[in-house]
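Design a sequence for this backbone.
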């Protein structure tokens, strides 16, 4: 069993071009040898920040923990707030933006492979 507490992990700045005021914590990954199929990450986006608008070949599941924002998609904007869950389909263009006054925090579950390489 692998256990981790978010308060014991230092969030790391996301340096991907287009990311503004975004930090990540890798909570569960194959790097610890306990999760061969998926990885769980926590993103923290400060007010006014955003992830880059991007696409990739894998789906991911997002659960919003705190704050408010929008998920931008090629179909338009979707308001998100604490308690919301969503699936982003493979190859769907998207990003997440903090539109509130507090950090936007969400968990993101992705399959191991290209989504987790280098981490």
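Sequence:
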């Amino acid at each position: 069993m692998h256990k981790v507490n978010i308060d014991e992990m230092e969030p790391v700045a996301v340096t991907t071009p287009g990311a503004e005021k975004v930090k990540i914590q890798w909570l569960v990954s194959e790097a610890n040898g306990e999760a061969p199929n998926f990885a769980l990450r926590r993103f923290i986006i400060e007010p006014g920040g955003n992830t880059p608008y991007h696409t990739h070949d894998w789906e991911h599941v997002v659960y919003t923990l705190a704050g408010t924002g929008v998920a931008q998609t090629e179909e338009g904007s979707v308001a998100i707030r604490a308690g919301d869950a969503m699936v982003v389909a493979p190859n769907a263009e998207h990003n997440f933006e903090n539109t509130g006054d507090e950090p936007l925090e969400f968990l993101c579950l992705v399959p191991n492979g290209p989504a987790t390489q280098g981490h």
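The chain has a mean pLDDT of 92.
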